[in-house]
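Okay, any thoughts on this one?
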Amino acid sequence: MSFETISLATDARGIATLTLNRPEKHNSLSAKMIDELTQAAAQISADSGIRVVILTAAGESFCAGGDLGWMREQFEADRQTRMAEARKLANMLKALNELPNPLIGRVQGQAFGGGIGMMSVCDTVVCVDTAKFGLTEVRLGLIPATISPYVLARMGEGKARRVFMSARIFGAEEARELDLAARVVPAHALDEAIEAEIKPYLAAAPAAVAASKDLARALGPDISEQTIEDTIRRLADTWETPEAREGIGAFFEKRKPEWSVRG
């Protein structure tokens, strides 16, 4: 299958590398990329020869969140359209989260908003020590709704509340403290660290690995269809608030929103 916004390649060992490939847009999530990631997840799930999946990105950023064009379309859309688009994002994250294969995040640069969601569906994440992170939705008058089940499952409520609603930018070491990343390494050591994460799986029985992952998810937080639909509804509600209109309008007009004060 040929893709425009991502790439998917598998080596002779059965290691699949899924790459976000819009470096000129900082790998922001467009409608096309969301659709292609969903297709790629289905393709990976159906391929019994794949042992491990690496999720990474091209260029200097891992994923800068929502694409500006996509955001503008949501700004101008009606409630049902917004919910339908949020549901596509939710289904993409769900598909990646439920891959039977181990999913290892290779985070070579910054991640914001939806990029944090992408990291949170990985089974483990290795990031470079220069990377910056943030859940920045509240700066726009929005909430990190669609990604929230996975972010909370990854960090736990207590740790997530340190960064979930402040839009504060934090570094790689704090990402590790928050359990968003498992390892932090210099850029030159990133590939070596990823290989170290891959190696144990090549000695493990693939079906047992998949069954163990399914067990872990079954015993972890319940990310049900009802939970996902609730996050979609909450996001749609927030889009209709005066704060969202002001925050997103200010963003596109390149001005500070009315609630911004100097600190």
